[in-house]
User: Fold N-acetylglucosamine-6-phosphate deacetylase from Clohesyomyces aquaticus.
Amino acid sequence: MPSAIPINGHRTPPRGTGVVKFTNCLLVKGDKLVEDDLWISSVSGKIINGQEILYEHRAAPDEVIDLGGRVLAPGFIDVQLNGAYGFDFSVIPEDESVGYGKGVSRVNRSLITTGVTSYLPTLTSQRPEVYETALPFLGPSGTLRDPNKGSESLGAHCEGPFISPKQNGIHNISVLRTASSGIADLATCYGASNLDPNSPSPIKLVTLAPELDGALSCISSLTSLGMSVSIGHSDASYETARTAIKAGATMITHLFNAMKPLHHRNPGIFGLLGTTSSQIDKPYFGIIADGIHLHPTSIQIAYNAHPSGLILVTDAMRLSGLPDGTYDWTNGSRIVKNGPLLTLEENGKIAGSSIQLVDCVTNFMNWTGASVAQAIGAVTETPARMLGMENVKGSLKEGADADLVVLDLQNAAEGTEKKLVVDQVWKFGVKVFEKV
Ligand SMILES: [Zn+2]
Assistant:
């Protein structure tokens, strides 16, 4: 079992300049792997210009790390994670804020060992009191730039409750809402202070159904507050979905799941991927590549239609990261966890995902023929671009945060398939995990 390097709550004081050079590695650059060195600073926590250090400052790195030909990628970003390691972002524990804060910290410290260095903690449709307690803990958490805090929230993803009762999936239908008074209804639900134009919001992404009464006007209100809007859990026609994109929505939440399937006379939300770029900006779209939610060929079709929009997400829930077994669920039900597959004990129905993001990358690569770099791009550069953070996250460019993953590309047990394994994780220029 891999284990985390002990996290002691302090940043190790860097020796000398704190400059680290990675060598003998394959860097993810665009859709290619490139043999090159990478320089980082453990003081600034950023990727730096090695040539400048070497020739202008005539300084040598403090540490040279030979990666033995392994892949060096930006840290992964998961824009849809409902919970993990026994903690559910949508459930307020009995000791309320105290327990909730501890739960979030625990997820952050464990999640980083999977290569996910930043993410959007995701709330399913809830009553206002849940947002009131949860959101203060889910806003961007990296301002202290402390690598020992683990994975970093880039802000919350509110998936609902402004979604369609016809496409609610596992969301509790009794808490779903419409937005006939526009953004005022969202403020009532999420909390007015969380939608206040004069203060930063903990919310980064909102999934809503654009066909709901009042929802379209909310899209431009949310984007003007600096949030991104994704279409999801929606029964929208192609035309309505297109109007939502024109209003400022930039993403589709878990494409294919919880929406109408493609029909040749009404292509629905999926049709957005077939629209020419001169008509609308094609949206980004989340894909759950766990082998359960989607057929590999459906993923291939979506990828071919809009390769630069595909974002791999886990949509994983609180049993993710726990050992296989049978767990108590709500209303007396029990869930059987068998690898990434979660089923209800009583009827064998799919009960969610518990896959890790690195395994989504592996599946995607093997199913679509995407290159290693292209597959990694779907959890790094593409989600960073969707979030407007492409110069800070998901990139190995100079000036970006030194959130890094060292990956071993192995041959899978059978056939020609490959497998990516997380060997090391670096956060803000400091190594925080090494597989043993
Ligand atoms: Zn969903």
Observations:
- Residues 3-74+397-434 form a domain with the Urease, subunit C; domain 1 fold (CATH 2.30.40.10).
- Residues 1-11 have pLDDT under 50 and may be disordered.
- The CA atoms of residues 223 and 248 lie 7 Å apart.
- Residues 159, 169, 233, 254, 258 surround zinc ion (CB under 6 Å).
